[in-house]
Specification:
With 250 residues, this protein is mostly helical. It contains ten helices and no strands.
Amino acid sequence: MLETTQIKQRLPFIDLIRGMTIIEMISYHFLWDLVYLYNADIPWYKSHGAYIWQQSICWTFILLAGFSWHLGKKHMKRGLWAFGGGVVVSLVTAIVLSNDRVRFGVLTLIGSCILIWILLDKVLKKIPAGVGVSVSFVLFLILRSWTKQDPIQLSDNLLNVTWLKSVLAYIGFLQTGFSSTDYFPLLPWIFLFATGYFLYSFLQEKGLINRLFGKGKVPGINFLGKHSLIIYMIHQPICYVVAFLVSEIF
């Protein structure tokens, strides 16, 4: 049954989840700065547990981005802002942290997915939501395992063309010499975005959107969730400075 009550354009619990994830992200990046820029001795940070923590942050952001597609109308503006933010991050890190630059990071991915969905939305609406959630998530898991364990290395004279190698890396086909400290190509991550997209439709069909996400306000945290993009853009320089001060003091 379709949900008969009007769905709020802002769902407080979604902002709360996003705000809590922003706090986790800031904490993770602060520790990254301490460990990799200022040589702090934090063995746990290089453990499998820290990797799971990092992945949970990224998964949450991408799922919420797909889920939130349905909550706004200015998709072109949102997509361009996110993609543009990703370009800025890439340029700044290339200048300031040439050995630890970000290429095709999470903002580039989210912006790309939003823009791609402008073309796909009408077609994807015809797919049953339950099928969409299941198929998207299974494809994500399969492709994630494949790209992680055995990234494709293509060899051809054309791959000497720099822009072509970048396009392949953007899609998800790794090439020799490519590196990025925050790498989220379209494959497999576009299918995690799709999972969030279909999850919203599935819960809406069950009449659960407002019931699950209509309440949940925590002052400060919801604010972070509402302004996640700008906070993402400004948090890293602040983390650099604070990490520097901490390293100098301790």
